[in-house]
Design goal:
Radius of gyration: 15 Å
Shape: globular
Number of strands: 7
Structural class: alpha+beta
Order of helices and strands: EHHEEHEHEHEE
Strand order of the largest sheet: 1-2-3-4-5-7-6
Number of helices: 5
Number of domains: 1
Strand content: 25-35%
Low-confidence stretches: none
Largest sheet: 7 strands, mixed
CATH class: Alpha Beta
Length: 172
């Protein structure tokens, strides 16, 4: 059975190794989240962060923080600053990370994590979520939930992969 548990600074040390291992399995070295980055993300006020367990085994996680806490040098953040439609309203959460162990891809766990993420974000008063994803099953899941592509970032951080910046309004 799939179960979600809060991720916070208080339980980070218990799961740090497993989360960083997921980063190694899923992302090129240049874009993996580091211990310090995760601690920073978990320190953000109004973050959404949780773990996904299948039969008591950690299989994934998700973390997001307010849009305004993101690096202004990133392409999506530059777009947000340019349009000024949402910047400073604190109604948008930026999805930093949402992962499922690669051996379990294609079984609906990613979709379940994104649904839980949206539920938690709405509960905290967010009206919109944005983030970067690969143009693969992740983008398909997000589009099926109503996401729109805003920007394609070619050769994301020199990885040779393209990433897509998307927005999704959270349903009331």
């Amino acid at each position: 059975m799939l179960e979600f548990k809060d991720l916070s600074l208080s339980n980070w040390n218990e799961v740090e190794g497993e989360i960083l291992r997921l980063e190694e399995l899923l992302f090129p070295e240049k874009i993996r989240g580091t211990r310090e980055e995760f601690i920073g993300w978990l320190s953000e006020e109004r973050n959404v962060a949780f773990l996904a367990y299948l039969n008591d085994v950690l299989i994934g996680c998700a973390i997001g923080a307010p849009l305004e806490s993101q690096d202004p040098k990133w392409p999506g953040t530059q777009l947000e600053l340019k349009t000024k439609k949402h910047w400073g309203r604190y109604d948008t959460i930026h999805g930093i990370n949402a992962v499922v162990h690669p051996e379990l891809h294609g079984r609906g766990y990613g979709r379940a994590i994104y649904e839980e993420y949206a539920r938690r974000a709405k509960e905290m008063g967010y009206k919109r979520r944005v983030g970067y994803c690969r143009p693969n099953a992740t983008l398909h899941i997000l589009k099926s939930q109503g996401a729109k592509e805003l920007l394609t970032c070619k050769n994301w951080f020199g990885t040779g992969e393209d990433y897509v910046y998307v927005e999704l309004y959270l349903k009331e």
